[in-house]
Specification:
- There is one protein chain.
- The protein folds into two domains: about 5-155 and about 340-370, Alpha-Beta Complex (Quinone Oxidoreductase, Chain A, domain 1), CATH 3.90.180; about 155-315, Rossmann fold (3-Layer(aba) Sandwich), CATH 3.40.50.720.
- Helix 3 (about 155-170) packs across helix 4 (about 185-195) and helix 6 (about 230-240) crosses helix 7.
- The protein starts with 5 loop residues before the first strand and ends with a strand.
- Helices cover about 25% and strands about 30% of the residues.
- The strands form four sheets. Strands 3, 7, 8, 9, 10, 19 and 20 form a seven-stranded mixed beta sheet that branches. A six-stranded parallel beta sheet has the order 13-12-11-14-16-18, sandwiched between helices.
- Strand 12, helix 5 and strand 13 form a beta-alpha-beta unit.
- With about 375 residues, it is of the alpha/beta class.
């Protein structure tokens, strides 16, 4: 360590041309910050589903082989040949992992001296590391009393949750549907919609998850494991007039079920028959991949519909810097209320490469969220 540089470990993911995915902890030197940059000692970084795509990619998890040492472990997995085509652009390129995180500013450029010693949340990748240099514009100063764990997840989930009602309003819808609704993001969305008066239909996968949301004040909660799921979903959509949905699951038939329920709800008050189905436009956005299998649509819900992907960065670019900043400021104000995140496990960088730990966090189970603390 010197007055201007810091050296630390960074978690990297590499896919070789030979079909091997390698995870390792690499030593990196973080140079002195520029005038509008800071260097942050990372103290918390969440493992989001969006991180797993880069971290583990399409590797076969049953092929995990641990190596290295206790302090510098490695993990090697095989990528099935049929999945290699999608990885051509990243072959033999060692990539840092981790979309967001939080920690303490330990170096600051000339225009950022006021941030020295402050805790900040950050966005920008490479957060599974001991130190990270970022532009000040990519940080948010945490409110007094907030821990790094409080601020670790203040970008991806909160901004995605805030984006959903924004898209709903901008596209002329009145209410929305959300799947995997008992997740951290889903609970945030439930609180946002209650505060902002947005009707929300929450789809969960168990009676326990349904009760969790009802206890949190959710009015419309539908359990996809219940025998009356389709009827209950149609009733909730008819009551709210929801015609837009955000699906975190992606694969399987859940999106199909939502579009069918929207069509059935629209037809309840139809005054005339149309061979093309109702004229009510139905929008399904897939923003996650909890199920990586095919999305199955039988197209029995008329012709007035669209299925699209949704990603946060293009949305933020579309709404512009002023709106994005407004959303970030709301997250900071309500960090420990509306946008509070809970974690079931905290692990160190080396533990993140332990096959037994990988098996747990890659499940993406609702109610189970891992936090990496690189200082451990």
């Amino acid at each position: 360590m010197t007055d201007t540089t810091l050296t630390g470990l960074e978690l990297r993911s590499l896919v070789t041309a030979g079909g091997e995915l390698r995870l390792s902890l690499e030593e990196v030197t973080v140079a002195a910050p520029g005038p509008d940059e800071v260097v942050v000692r990372i103290e918390a970084a969440p493992i989001n589903p969006s991180d797993l795509g880069l971290l583990l990619g399409p590797a076969d998890l049953e092929t995990m082989q641990a190596g290295g040492t206790a302090d510098r472990p490695t993990l090697t997995l095989q990528v099935p040949p049929q999945r290699m085509g999608m990885l051509k652009a990243r072959l033999d390129d060692s990539l840092p992992v981790g979309n967001e995180g939080a920690g303490t500013v330990v170096r600051a450029g000339a225009n950022a001296q006021a941030l020295l010693g402050k805790r900040v949340g950050m966005l920008g990748g490479a957060m599974y590391a001991q130190y990270r240099k970022v532009a000040v514009r990519d940080t948010i100063t945490l409110p007094e009393g907030a821990s790094a764990a409080d601020g670790a997840s203040m970008f991806v989930n909160p901004l995605t949750a805030l984006a959903m009602p924004e898209v709903m309003r901008s596209e002329g819808h009145q209410a929305l549907v959300h799947t995997a609704a008992a997740s951290n993001l889903g609970q945030m969305l439930n609180r946002i919609c209650q505060a902002d008066g947005v009707p929300l239909v929450n789809i969960v996968r168990s009676a326990e998850q349904a009760q969790l949301l009802r206890d949190a004040g959710a009015q419309y909660v539908v359990d996809s494991s219940a025998p009356d799921f389709r009827d209950s979903l149609t009733d909730a959509i008819a009551a709210t007039n929801a015609t837009i949905a955000f699906d975190a699951i992606g694969g399987g038939k859940i999106g199909n079920a939502i579009l069918h329920a929207m069509e059935a709800a629209a037809n309840r008050n139809a005054t005339a028959y149309s061979r093309y189905g109702s004229s009510a436009f139905k929008q399904l956005y897939i923003y996650g991949g909890l199920d990586v299998g095919p999305t199955v649509l039988d197209r029995g819900f008329g012709f007035s519909w669209s299925v699209s992907g949704f990603l946060l960065p293009p949305f933020l670019a579309k709404v512009g810097a002023a709106k994005a900043q407004e959303m970030r400021e709301r997250v900071a104000r309500e960090l420990k209320t509306t946008f509070a995140s809970t974690y079931t496990d905290t692990i160190g960088l080396a533990e993140a490469l332990d096959p037994k730990v990988v098996e747990q966090y890659q499940r993406k189970a609702t109610g189970q969220k891992f936090l990496i603390d690189p200082t451990r």
